[in-house]
UniProtKB/TrEMBL annotation:
Keyword terms: FAD, Flavoprotein, Oxidoreductase
Xref: Pfam families: FAD_binding_5
SMART domains recorded: CO_deh_flav_C (SM01092)
Protein name: Carbon monoxide dehydrogenase
A molecular-function term among this protein's GO annotations: oxidoreductase activity
Occurrences of domain FAD-binding PCMH-type (ranges): 1-166
Amino acid sequence: MYNFEFEKPTTVAEAVAALSSDEAQALGGGQTLLPTMKQRLAMPEKLVSLTGIADMKGVSASGGTLTIGGGTPHKTVADEATAYPALAALASNIGDPAVRNRGTIGGSLANNDPSACYPSAALASGATIVTNAREIAADDFFQGMFTTALDEGEIITAVKFPIPEKANYQKFEQPASRFALVGVYVAKYAEGVRVAVTGASEEGVFRWTEAEAALSSNFAVSALEGLSVPADGMIGDLHGTSEYRAHLVGVLTKRAVTAAA
């Protein structure tokens, strides 16, 4: 590791001010940023820790919406998001205990790793990402691998999840990292079904609209018969070919529907 400045503000306003310089980088749980810095793939001159901002932590439910502070660790989501069981179950299976106790939902969404779990939950739930400056619909937030709609210095302060009638997340794990080789999140609402896929596409998390249309008409595994995603544009690496990942999307979607129903 190299020398850098470190600040730990206690309010969002202080954090925004500290991030105003070009050399500053926000630090959530540090589960991605710190290893990246150790490898010299990122070298910010100043880290601004968000872990001291109490207003960015906590889980609450009201009026059919679950609100989670951006600085809330995965372990807290797993324990306290009881109003949205599928989301709590997803959080309980992220990484290992160290990652779950340190990593935060805001950090995960801001990083937008193509194999992370939370982006699929946010997209399938039609969540709203709340920042210090505005509110962003999940459909507009994710813009490709490690790319989001966040501006420089913008902080995710909370995430609002509409609670669905039924939901389930199925993850085919890469056993070493416990990231999703492929993950599928299915959420059923009165107005229709949303299906989001992570870990599979070179473009990052995406909605499988063909499956959504079929399941909105008939929320049953039989509605998915004959449907598949093309292998073109799927990730291919030493863990699995693009064809394998495309196949897994269909398998995991069926499992998610079965478990939710």
